[in-house]
């Protein structure tokens, strides 16, 4: 089969790899229908994910069709269309029983990081019954594509932010994760969602789609100005909850500065360098910090929200490329060419 592989030294290439086989009783082999590129794939290529293994097929956000299952899999069958979580998890360990599947002792973020991922024609999915969710007949593949990662992250971020009806939540970053977070935050019925970014077009999209009530273009603002802008929208207090989904050079500091005292600050972003936590500067704010990565065990819940029309991710789709052209897709995605948000990778085409 064809697959996109990174070598651990910043290089990626399409290679011919053997089709995966069932290795454990709980495995499923999935034929990939659609996949996509995530910023965390770029972090792996850049060497910013120390646990990532070289010579691994990239990708962890996809939908597909079950081709084969292991002997202990009874809830899935060949022919089932499935969305797949970015995290594989056993469902039985100390962490899984508490919903903390990112830290599953046998799984977590493995696909495309430590085991072969989905930017290929086929992929082996461990713990398939926990990791896969059947796509209902009235939900298209494209509508379910982002549920396993960015929508999972948005739902998780909104949940751990402890949003309440009537609150004000600030989301830093109006990229794919930030927009997905706004979609999920709206379900908690906040009074205001404030979107902050340095890209005016992304902010305009958030406003046009009704995902943000207020937007702040921070491209020409220092942190003091951003903080003042948020305070002006919150009766001088700051945001009740903040979700940091940008991972920029100053967005961690922005997150705690724009939060009101006793707020929850969720760090959903990944950083490619260390961040400073200046406790002496925030003393007395009594903030609660909650950090990633996502516990992506909410596929059934978000699938129902898509089925009921309460989450619509169509605005995130920018371009489509066949697997043949995935190298070009990566180039365009990293360059944010034509203001792209998400690239959809379709199956390999015979040419």
Automatic annotation (TrEMBL):
Cofactor names: Zn(2+)
Family statement drawn from the similarity comment of this UniProt entry: Belongs to the zinc-containing alcohol dehydrogenase family.
Entry annotated with the keyword Ribonucleoprotein: no
Listed InterPro entries: ADH-like_C, ADH-like_N, ADH_Zn_CS, ER, GroES-like_sf, NAD(P)-bd_dom_sf
CDD domains: FDH_like
Record bears the keyword Methyltransferase: no
GO molecular function: oxidoreductase activity; zinc ion binding
Name this protein carries in UniProt: Enoyl reductase (ER) domain-containing protein
Superkingdom, taxonomy of origin: Bacteria
The Enoyl reductase (ER) domain, residue ranges: 8-345
Record Gene3D superfamilies: Medium-chain alcohol dehydrogenases, catalytic domain (3.90.180.10), NAD(P)-binding Rossmann-like Domain (3.40.50.720)
SUPFAM superfamilies, sorted: GroES-like, NAD(P)-binding Rossmann-fold domains
Coiled-coil residue spans: none
Key words, A-Z: Metal-binding, Oxidoreductase, Zinc
């Amino acid at each position: 089969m064809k697959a996109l592989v990174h070598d651990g030294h910043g290089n990626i290439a399409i290679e011919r790899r053997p089709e995966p086989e069932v290795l454990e009783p709980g495995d499923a082999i999935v034929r990939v229908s659609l996949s996509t590129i995530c910023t965390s794939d770029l972090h792996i290529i850049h060497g910013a994910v120390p646990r990532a293994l070289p010579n691994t097929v990239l990708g962890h956000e996809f939908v597909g069709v079950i081709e084969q299952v292991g002997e202990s899999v009874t809830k899935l069958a060949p022919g089932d269309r499935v969305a797949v979580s970015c995290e594989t998890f056993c469902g039985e360990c100390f962490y899984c029983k508490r919903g903390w599947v990112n830290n599953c002792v046998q799984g977590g973020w493995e696909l495309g990081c430590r085991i072969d991922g989905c930017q290929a024609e086929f992929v082996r999915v461990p713990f398939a019954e926990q990791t896969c969710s059947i796509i209902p007949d009235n939900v298209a593949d494209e509508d379910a594509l982002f549920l396993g990662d960015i929508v999972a992250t948005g739902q998780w971020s909104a949940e751990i932010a402890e949003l309440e009806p009537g609150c004000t939540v600030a989301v830093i970053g109006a990229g794919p994760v930030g927009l997905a977070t706004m979609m999920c935050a709206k379900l908690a019925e906040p009074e205001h969602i404030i979107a902050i970014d340095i890209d005016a077009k992304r902010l305009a999209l958030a406003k046009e789609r009704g995902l943000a009530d207020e937007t702040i273009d921070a491209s020409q603002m220092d942190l003091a100005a951003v903080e003042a802008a948020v305070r002006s929208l919150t009766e001088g207090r700051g945001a009740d909850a903040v979700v940091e989904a940008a991972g920029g050079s100053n967005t961690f500091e922005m997150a705690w500065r724009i939060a009101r005292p006793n707020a929850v600050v969720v760090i959903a972003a990944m950083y490619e360098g260390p961040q400073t936590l200046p406790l002496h500067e925030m003393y007395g704010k009594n903030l609660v910090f909650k950090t990633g990565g996502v516990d992506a065990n909410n596929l059934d819940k978000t699938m129902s929200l898509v089925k009921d029309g309460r989450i619509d991710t169509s605005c995130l789709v920018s371009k489509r490329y066949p697997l043949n052209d995935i190298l070009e897709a990566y180039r365009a995605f990293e360059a944010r060419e034509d203001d792209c948000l998400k690239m959809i990778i379709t199956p390999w085409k015979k040419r």
